[in-house]
Structures are given as structure tokens and as C-alpha cells.
Amino acid sequence: MKSPSEEDWTRLDKAVAGRVLRPGENGFGAVSMPFNRRFADTVPAGVVSVASVVDVQRAVVWARENGVGVAVRGGGHSYAGFSVGPGLVIDLGSLNTVSANASTGLVTAAGGASMSDVYAAIQPGEMAFALGNGASVGIGGLTLGGGVGATSRVHGITADALMATTLVTADGEVLRCSADENPDLFWACRGGGGGNFGVNVSFTFQAQPVSDCATYVLLWHIEDAEKVFSAVQETMRTAPDAFAARVGVSTTGPDSVVSCIGQHMGSAAALKEILDPILAVAEPFRTLINDRTYWQAKDDLLHETAAGAFACRTSVLTEPLPGDGIDAMLSLVRRWPGGGNPDGGGAALFSWGGAVNRVPAGDTAFPHRDAKFLLSMDTSWASNDSPAVVDANIGWLGELADTLAPYGNERSYLNFTDPDLKSWRTAYYGDNYARLAEIKRRIDPDGFFTFEQGIGS
Ligand SMILES: Cc1cc2nc3c(=O)[nH]c(=O)nc-3n(C[C@H](O)[C@H](O)[C@H](O)COP(=O)(O)OP(=O)(O)OC[C@H]3O[C@@H](n4cnc5c(N)ncnc54)[C@H](O)[C@@H]3O)c2cc1C
Hints:
Layout: H1 6-15, E1 19-21, H2 28-32, E2 46-49, H3 53-65, E3 70-73, E4 88-91, E5 98-101, E6 106-110, H4 115-122, E7 127-128, H5 139-144, H6 152-155, E8 162-168, E9 174-178, H7 183-188, E10 199-206, E11 208-209, E12 213-220, H8 225-238, E13 243-251, E14 256-264, H9 268-281, E15 286-292, H10 294-301, E16 309-317, H11 323-334, E17 345-351, E18 373-381, H12 387-404, H13 424-429, H14 433-443
Parallel strand pairs: 2-4, 3-4
Antiparallel strand pairs: 1-2, 5-6, 6-10, 7-11, 8-9, 8-10, 12-14, 12-15, 13-14, 13-17, 16-18, 17-18
The chain binds flavin-adenine dinucleotide (FAD).
Flavin-adenine dinucleotide binds next to strand 3, helix 5 and strand 10.
């Protein structure tokens, strides 16, 4: 990578309607800091906060001419810090308009729109598709990596609702992709990962009408963990697609809690019936089960995690985690090494299945169509924790992932990006990797969009 001169940076600044910020300038931190502070040491040479698609084209052309690597930043939440690099960050944060047509159900979001932007646009039309539950998560990263939400067992993944996307390619061209136009690239943009093929400047989705539903939060002490994990998984074997669950155990050292939270696209009374076998194995110390409008339910589940340093590993499960796997998981959670981040560490199972399983694995780049659960394991630490604490946490997480690996199918979820994963090509993409690599060679033959764990790297 070359180092552009001050004149080169000034040229970029003049070429775009948005703004260019360099290290030390006011506001630089807000557009350059990765959400995961584990990667806070990566400082880009400059950030261009684009104001239009033309700005994106000019930024790409400028970076090519100056031999500068680029990283594309949507909501900035990549767990691996992939939306920040040492070269030029193309920050899409100001491209956040969303339009929604209540009569067709078509929703078009600009490439930098957040979950909150999308929800605000679709709510008046009483329509939705599967979205993430982090308010400031970007639609770009979510969709391009698949996107699984509390309604995915009914609506499919976010990428399943995608009808078209427009991207700026490595040579600065604007390409529209849909089932009819550039269908290969359209296939790749449904689970093939952000930052690989270009800068996606817009996404068009087909939304579905929504109805009232119900949400729940159940909390137990860690002593009940094994019974609860077993009962939730057993319930999922026969539960309707309308029901979704996330069952987790988390610890901060002195305090540990088991939780089961989720949504049912039906009444609270029907939800209570589904939950009864789980409630029967152990009495929660907190039980909330409520009828909600779709939008209240969204608010119940939407959350904004405070940015901190963390690591996450995942394993796609095609079968429930058996008793010995649950025991092994709990025994490791009890041995969490500690750290100063109040998020602590833990493990959780997200119910997938339902509509996620009804699309063949090769129809989109997202391969996990036989998944019943996503096992997510995480840990966190504070910026001022010592290197020994950080090492202990990363080592503990590795041990937890290795211990539970035999229960999975050697697959991981791209959107819970794991920079420590060596086998990421098959883990994220399964048999779809070869086609993705071939599309990459055609659309970006010089590997202009390159990063660790990028397709073709
Ligand atoms: C609080 C929180 C809640 C979450 N909840 C969910 C959830 O419910 N379901 C789920 O599936 N995931 C969830 N995630 C994970 C989330 O989907 C990923 O972290 C996602 O990659 C974030 O996208 P982003 O645009 O915010 O991040 P970024 O870091 O900006 O982008 C992630 C990757 O996509 C690329 N990219 C982003 N936008 C574009 C674009 N427009 N064009 C080309 N490339 C682009 C970036 O270069 C980077 O490689 C959550 C994450 C957090 C932090």
C-alpha cells in the first residue's frame, strides 16, 4: 500500500461532496473506531464519509489511483473490526435514507442505513422482514452476511428478503444485481459477506404484513442451567415456526444467570402453552410473558450493547446439544477467567430452523440451511485489563469452542465474525466458497477489496 501525499488527500476532499477526515481531526474517532475495541489500535490513514453514490465511485477511483487499500464501513459493528483498515475507510453512515411502499411491500434502504432507520420506515406500513436486534447495526453488514433475527423462523434470513442490490465495483462502476441482472453477484450478496465484491449502496427488500405477537423473558439461577437448556431444545423439536428462543448462560464471575428470551408470532396465551414444559422443569426467578404489537416486540428485543472489547466464536448445530455437551459448556462457564467488562462471558443457543431451513443451501451464498441452532460463545474484557487477562479470556474461549466443536458441523456464522477462526472458508461458506471465489475473480480481478478473511485471500 502506498502513502498518498497531502495534495492527494486534498484532491479527494475536493472531489467528494462528503467530508474527508484524517487522524487527529475533529470527529475522526466517531467514524474510524471499530465497535469491537479489541481492534482499537487499527487507525486508518483517512476516512471519507460519503454523501452520495458518486462520492463512493470517486473514493474508489481515488484509492485505486493512489494504491490505497479500502475498508467499507456500514454500521461499523464487525466483530473482527473488518470495517476499519490502515488505508481509506469509506464510511456509508450518511447514506441512510430508507423508503417503504406499503402497497407493494418493497423497502429500499441506502447502504449505510441502520436497523433503527429501517424500522422507522417500515413501521407506518405495518410490514417487516427479518432484521437484527442491535439498533445501530448496519443493514449492509447484516444482509451481506445473511442476517438472522427473532422472526427468521417465519420470515427467513434478511438476505432471503433481498430482491435487488446496487453496488459500486472495484473499477468504480455502478451495477444493479437481482435475479435478472447480474444474478451471480446477486447470489453472492445474499450471505457472501460484506466488503468482498464492492460497496453496496442500496438494498431492496420484499417485506411481509405483520400482526400482533408476544414476547417473553425468563431468568433462572445457574443451578437450573442444565434442565433449562435441555427443556428449551426439546421444546424446539416440535415448536411452531412462529416461536423463537435464545437460551443462554452468562457470567461476570460472582454473578451468573440463565436466560431464555424470545418472541412468538401469536398470543401470549399460546406462547405460555409452548413455554409450559420449560417452566415446569425449573421455576424462573423472573417471568415476563406479554402480548405485544409487532413494534413493541421489536422494542423489547432491540438493544444497544455498549461497545467494548470482546471475542465471539460460533458453531452451527444441526442437532440439539446433548446432556454431556451442556455439562461441558457449564463447567467451562463456571471457570470463566474474569475481566473488567460488565458483559462477562457465556454461551447461548439461538433457535434457527423453520424458514431458514426451507431454502436449499446452494440457492444463496448463505449455506447453513440445515441449522437447528446457532451456538454462540463469547467473552469480553475492559480496555485497561492487563495483557494476561486478555490472553486468559481468549484462551478460555478457544477451550470452550474446541470442547463443543464435536457437537457442531464445523460451520460458523459469518456475521458473528471470528478473526481467530482458521478454517473460515468452509466454516462460513461450506460448499458455496468455490463459487464465491470464482465470482470474486471476475468482479474484482485485482483483489482491490481485500482484507483478512476476504473472499479470495
Ligand atoms: C448489538 C449487536 C446486535 C446484533 N444482532 C444481530 C442479529 O440479531 N442478527 C444477526 O444476524 N447479526 C447480529 N449482529 C451481528 C451483525 O449482523 C454483524 O456484526 C454485521 O456485520 C454488522 O454490520 P455493520 O454494517 O453494522 O458492520 P460493519 O462493520 O460496518 O460491516 C460488517 C462487514 O460488512 C461490510 N459492509 C458493511 N456495509 C457494507 C456495504 N453497504 N457494502 C459492502 N460492504 C459492507 C464491512 O466492510 C464489513 O466487512 C449484531 C451485532 C451487534 C453488535
